[in-house]
Amino acid sequence: MQADELGLLLRKERGQFLEFLSAYEYKKGGGQQKRSEELTREIARLLVGMANADGGTLVVGVEPDRTVTGVPYPTDEIQILTHAAQTLVHPPLSPSCERMRLGNLLLLKFDVSSGPEVYRLAGGRSFYRIATETPSLPAEQVRQLKDARKSFFYERQQVLEASWDDLDEDAITRLGEKIQDPRDPKTLLGQGYHLIDNSREKGSLTMAALLLFANDPARWHPRCGIDFVKYEGTERQHGSALNVIRRIRFEAPLFRLIDEAVGRIREHIRERTILHDLFFRERLEYPAFAWQEALVNAVAHRDYSLSGAPVEVWMFDDRLEVRSPGLPPSPVTIDQLRQQKRVHFSRNPLLVRVLADLGYLREMGEGIPRMFQEMEHHGLRAPEFAVEGFFFSVTLRNTPIYDEATLRWLNQFSGPAVNFRQRRLLAYAYSHGKMFSTTDYQRVGEVDRDIAYREIRSMVKLGIVAPLKPKSRSYRIIERL
CA-CA distance, 440 to 434, in Å (whole number)? Predict the structure, then answer.
């Protein structure tokens, strides 16, 4: 059984919920065993990061490329490693720890859930898991995370009147099949996802379990679905001027809610006919990734304690608005989103972990930057973020900012290495003789001279632009087409 479980883990990629840690360090002279004190601290750091985020699994004795090398320490030092989270973390952390064997090699598997506390190492530093990285948190973000933890309990609250019969057991079985976990549904929810609270003699379902898998989720939360409203025109009208064309209410457990909503909303995303390479082509008015990512984020990160409102999707002639009850989960700020910073903080870590395993949240911390890239690639305006009352909204506009010829020319420079300011500058240069100056970059990109110079030099290194003369502050475009 251990071999099957280990085989399943080794087939997965490192990510938000899984990390491999080697007991060896590799220098020019070859590999050598880490000091046990060093490995103990690394274990504690990674478990702190996972506990402060969404929880996860740490396997010690495996290289980053998933080669199994084992944990070659004597029994007394193994004991110290297994208690790293209790001895080096404040407040003490109590992950489950399992000793696993593959042939003669010993491995340690730690499972930790997200908790109501903000954990830190004995030295005082806190860490947070974002995709494959576990950076330390600045003091201000630690304070914000502590404040956010005050509203952490909604998805974890025990619903004493709920029973196992209130869940769709077939859906839980399908989840186990998808992630290739052979455990029975109750064990999977309890031990695998911590969706059953076993602190009482009789285990109780959490609100997260009911939101995800209840046969009738509206019985437990009156507005946990999605409302889609399509309007005629560009503004909401009321009374005798009411301009609602279509209204659809989606009510289903989160396990299937997103797919149902995406399937029906997609029918209302129009296609635009454009002339491309002398042929007429169809292009959707919103990139699929952009609007679907906004919808998934709204479902995963909304504040479910605000039970009087659903996630809302408003479609107008010129834009699509996805509205989520609650502010962005602290310490995420609107400014960080607008600046495309790589951030990931979960208000609902239990929900997030299941939705990630279902395939809805694949790119922790990368979704918002990619939304910008997709909108820019299609010649559309950047996503807009706003707070209106207790709603957080994401707005996508369908009006192109480039004509088709400019967009076709501009897309020869597409790729993650070219940011939205650089693309905007290239579009400007396209209509100005395919040349620009540092001053142009400052004005068009709305940045200071240092940022302009740094980002121009980046394009020079990529072979996109070249100075007109040595040490010149004017540049020409090097076309690739």
Answer: 12
What was the pLDDT predicted at 115? 77
Write down the number of H helices and E strands in the chain. 17, 21
Question: Which DSSP symbol is given to 166?
Answer: G
For 359: left if phi > 0, alpha if psi spans -120 to 50, otherwise beta; the answer is left
* Dist CA 409 CA 407 (whole Å): 5
35-71 pLDDT tens trace: 999 999 999 999 999 999 889 999 999 998 899 999 9
Q: Are 81 and 43 in contact (CB under 8 A)?
A: yes
Cβ contact 148:155 at 8 Å:
no
Task: Indicate the residue type of 140.
Answer: E
pLDDT at 111 over 60: yes
Can you tell me the distance from the alpha carbon of 208 to that of 192, in angstroms, rounded to the nearest whole number? 14
pLDDT of residue 316 exceeding 90: yes
Cα angle 285, 287, 290 (rounded to 5 degrees) comes to 125
- 3-state class (DSSP) for residue 269: coil
SS (H, E, C) 32-81: EECCHHHHHHHHHHHHHHHHHCCCEEEEECECCCCCECCCCCCHHHHHHH
CB 54 within 8 A of CB 114: yes
Mean pLDDT of 191-220: 89
pLDDT in tens, 385-401: 999 999 999 999 988 77
Angstrom distance (rounded) from CA 359 to CA 357: 5
Mean residue pLDDT of the chain comes to: 88
Which residue(s) pair with 32 in the sheet?
A: 25
Alpha-carbon distance of 447 to 419, in angstroms, equals 13
Residues 6 or more apart in contact with residue 341 via CB below 8 angstroms: none
pLDDT, tens digit, 9 for 90 and up, residues 256-308: 999 999 999 999 998 764 444 434 444 678 999 999 999 999 999 999 999 99
- Cα dihedral 385, 386, 392, 398, rounded to 10, equals -50
Terminus-to-terminus CA distance in the chain, angstroms? Answer: 56
Among 180, 212, 178, 215, residue whose Cα is nearest residue 194:
212
Least confident of 80-84, 272-276, 389-393, 426-430: 272-276
Q: Which domains does the chain have, with CATH numbers?
A: 2-137 (3.30.950.30), 155-216 (no CATH), 226-397 (3.30.565.60), 404-477 (1.10.10.10)
